[in-house]
Structures are given as structure tokens and as C-alpha cells.
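Order emerges. For instance:

***
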Amino acid sequence: MAKLTESMTNVLEGDSMEQDVESPVTIHQPKLPKQARDDLPKHISRDRAKRKIQRYVRKDGKCNVHHGNVRETYRYLTDIFTTLVDLKWRFNLLIFVMVYTVTWLFFGMIWWLIAYIRGDMEHIEDPTWTPCVTNLNGFVSAFLFSIETETTIGYGYRVITDKCPEGIILLLVQSVLGSIVNAFMVGCMFVKISQPKKRAETLVFSTHAVISMRDGKLCLMFRVGDLRNSHIVEASIRAKLIKSKQTTEGEFIPLNQTDINVGYYTGDDRLFLVSPLIISHEINQQSPFWEISKAQLPKEELEIVVILEGMVEATGMTCQARSSYVTSEILWGYRFTPVLTLEDGFYEVDYNSFHETYETSTPSLSAKELAELSNRAELPLSWSVSSKLNHHAELETEEEKNHEDQTERNGDVTNLENESKV
């Protein structure tokens, strides 16, 4: 029993050591909706499932790129407005409060210095003395007067007198600079609040992209939808293939971007996004998927970035939503489940089935191989291989019959000639 326990311990330790050597980092799979998890094909290998995928664009649309070693940081200050708008909310609010506080303190200090230099602090109880600002008896009261001046509150307790020209000049300067600060900071807050980034949260993309036959042609498809009743005006869709390549000269281009045609020349890329739409890319000779087959697809290291943009109907501001599909999220031989149904007087969209797919009969060959096979057999791509074989068999049978008929006719002609000779 002890030997058995020891052997089991050794086996477990050996397995754990092998596992540590092969995959030292445990990769947690992302949480997907139930229908998305059910749609994963069963034949995906374990190596492919465990392989870590480095995305260029995450599923939520954020770019997975960090800028490092930026030495010319002064360029951010040349466009300070955009820099402030791009900051996170906590930093933006902190700067908002700090700018106003520093401004009030700065001008409060100047008001206190004027009163101190003129000697107003020494004649506080003297009724015959005309101060620069009445009822200003210290730095705190000067700070409060600065706030009242810049925000134009005007409580009426502290008032500037006409015997202080330097105070009048400072009042003009603070009023002008205060208006500039208000315009700048309120403008930053307004732009940040009205940014259409949150509008993109209601623009959804399907969890997977699919490859199947459509109208006799092999197509790559994905689905987009808008959850709001207010529509996206002038909506358009684009797609990019992110894949590293090496040129014929030996130059290595990391993350090379290639356009994927989703209807640019036919106008199909301009969408009327009232209900979910399936965006289709025909895999032809100009497509980067021309030579990729079902068996080769899992071996490819590529990423498809899709970009949906348009104007928000309520505000008129441009909105952009992004998502991406890596190799493991492209299902070969699947189609999307319909989500639009006709009810009593209206159409209803079932978003519970938005990500659902179902398996369909699709050739495992690449589009190039299908085209070569079609040209060789002179048959449409939608025909199956079995139908092509049956067609070839029928052609061979007809040729044999024609050959036999020709042989019989030749034999009859020969017999006639022999009889005529006799």
C-alpha cells in the first residue's frame, strides 16, 4: 500500500512538473455568454484552446497598445485641451477643483498684499480711513473677496472703493482671467460629458465570426446590432486583417493591416442599422482568406478588427464602436440564427439569439481550391463533391453508349459493303 501511494505521488509530481514546463502560466478563458460557450465547435484541439492569444483590439473595442519611451512629452501640453479631455474622470475632477482653488488663492494673495502695502491693516478701526476694499481685515477675508469677485456672487459686505486704482486694475484682470478659466474648464467638462463613447456600449457585435457558403460563394460573416431605439445616422462598417508578414525582400512587418472588403464597391458597407445585420465578406482572389482552408485556419495567427461608425441621432456627434475576432473565434461551417420575426403589425428582434449559430454543410476546401475544382469540372461552387462524381459517372456512361452505337453502325456499314461486293 505504501509503495502504491509512493508511486501515485511520483506520477502526480511528474505530471505537475510536465505541466509546469509546458505551460508555466495558467491562462483563464474569458467568460462568454451561455449561447457562445455552447456554440464552440467540439473539434477544437486542446492546444489551440490553451494557446494564449495576444489581441491587438480587445472585444470591448479598446486598443491593446501602450506607448512607451515617449520623450517629447511637451507635445501633450501644446494640445492641453485634448489632453485634459482624454484624462480619466478622477484626474479631470481633481484638475478642475485645483485650477479654481489655485486661481482664488492667487488673486486673494494679491488683494491681501495691496491692502497690506497701502496700510489698510493698520487702520481697520479708523472710520476716517478709506481702504482699498472695505471690511478686508486679513488673508481669509481677502480670499473670500477673491471668490466673490471671480464668481460674481457679490454679497455686498466687501466692496472695492474708488480710492484704489491698483485695485480697480486687479478687478478687471481677475474678471477677464476668471471668464477665460470658466470657459476653458466648463468646456472641458462639457466635451467630456457629451463624448459619444458610451453610445458605443449599445452597439453590439456577435461573439463569433462564421465562414459558410452564401449564394454559391464562400463568405466570412459577422453580425452587428444596435440596442437603442435612436438610430445611428450614416452608419458604415469597415474591417481590417491584422497579421504579421514578411516581404519578398526579407523585411518583417509586424501587425500588418490589410483591408477586408465588406461591400465598399457595391455600397453594402453603408448600413441602415434598424435591426441586426449580417455583414458578409466574399472570399475571392482579392481576399486575404483566398488560400485558407478549414484545416489551415487554426494554424493561422491573425485577427480581424471590425469598425462601425456613424453619427448619433440625438447629438449629431460621431460615434465609433470596435471589436475583433481571433482565429479561435472564427467558426468554419456555421451560420447565424435568425433573430427577426414578424409579429402582429411590427417586427421583433430577439437579442437572446443574437450570438447563436448553427452548423451547416460547408466545403472544407479553401476558396482557391473550390474555384480550381469548379473550373476543372465546369460546375457551380454550390454543387457537392458527390454530385460532381455522379455527373462524371453519367458522362462516362454516355460516352460508352455512344462508342457502342458507333461500333454497331460501323459493323452494319461493313456488312452492307461485303454484300454489295458479292
About this structure: Residues 145 and 218 are 75 Å apart (CA to CA). The radius of gyration is 38 Å. Confidence is low (pLDDT under 50) at residues 1-50, 412-422.
